[in-house]
Hints:
The protein is an alpha/beta fold. The protein is built from 6 helices and 15 strands. Helices cover about 25% and strands about 20% of the residues.
Amino acid sequence: MVKTQDVRSQMPGGNSKRNISQIKNIARHHSATTEGTAQSFANYHVNHHGWNTSGYHEVILRDGTVQIAYDDNVVTNGVGGHNTPTYHICVVGSGSFTDKQEEAFEERAKEAMSRFGLDVGDVLGHNEFSNTNGYSHSSNSCPGIDMDKVRGWLGGSSTSNSKPSTSSSASGRVESKVNGLRFYSKPSWSDSDVAGRVDEGIGFPNIVRKIKVGNGYQYEVKNSKGATYYITAASKYVTTTSGSTSSTSSSGGTKLSLPTGVYSMSRNSSEQLADVKLIQAALNAANFNCGEEDGYFGAKTDDALRRFQSVYLPYEIDGVYGQNSRRELDKVVNG
């Protein structure tokens, strides 16, 4: 799960709206700069181009952080003549992008494809849009990357389209990415002898214990930040944290049981401690950190839930855990 920042309140304009059903494409852009943010690009678009609304719904910074700039139903100014049916994602850089950015783009593009009912063929680079209404796009260098490769990554096509972050080392170690984390194994490993590693860019974990599951095994590992993962040779895993309540699913993973009630800061009570702990465990597992799982729905839990909602329920950012938040959290942490 990538780190997100909600900067929508800092963006200009946003008054031109559309129906979500009108969205037919996702556009990839590059900023053609070595640095920058959604805010700085918006300032340029307003002051230099005279636009009321900036060009991008999302901006992916060099460290992989995703800035959410506009709601889905806002028409932005990314590709002239094609803006009403297009959702725009900008990757900061000029023809050179980091592994973290590519991982973030893949996650966000797939999320947007799911929201709008699109497929890989609907993801286009800026210069792939047709010239229309006096706008010339085909000669544009944006997005600064071969989009056939990008679509190959999104669609899981042949190894010839492998991203820089997916590789095989001289020792035969194979690296594959699962939900933004890297899992290392060897082709010959089976569930009974897997010795995997999960890397968050900070350090490799230690294998804590081997657990018999059906006819195979899964391994409990901890990374350098203390988070726990359950993995198998098939790269199945789920994150939990110390003290989380979980149960083993029939597929061999670990499933968090989420409460069905309504919870928020204004509804705090001692009778809700166990349920709020489960909500906190799920938010931590989804990488929307809320700190200690103490059963108290305080400011940190409220903030984490709102950040989660800004990504998965952008029209329901109210800090209230209810039916919709439960549904989306369940999808993220339990699959």
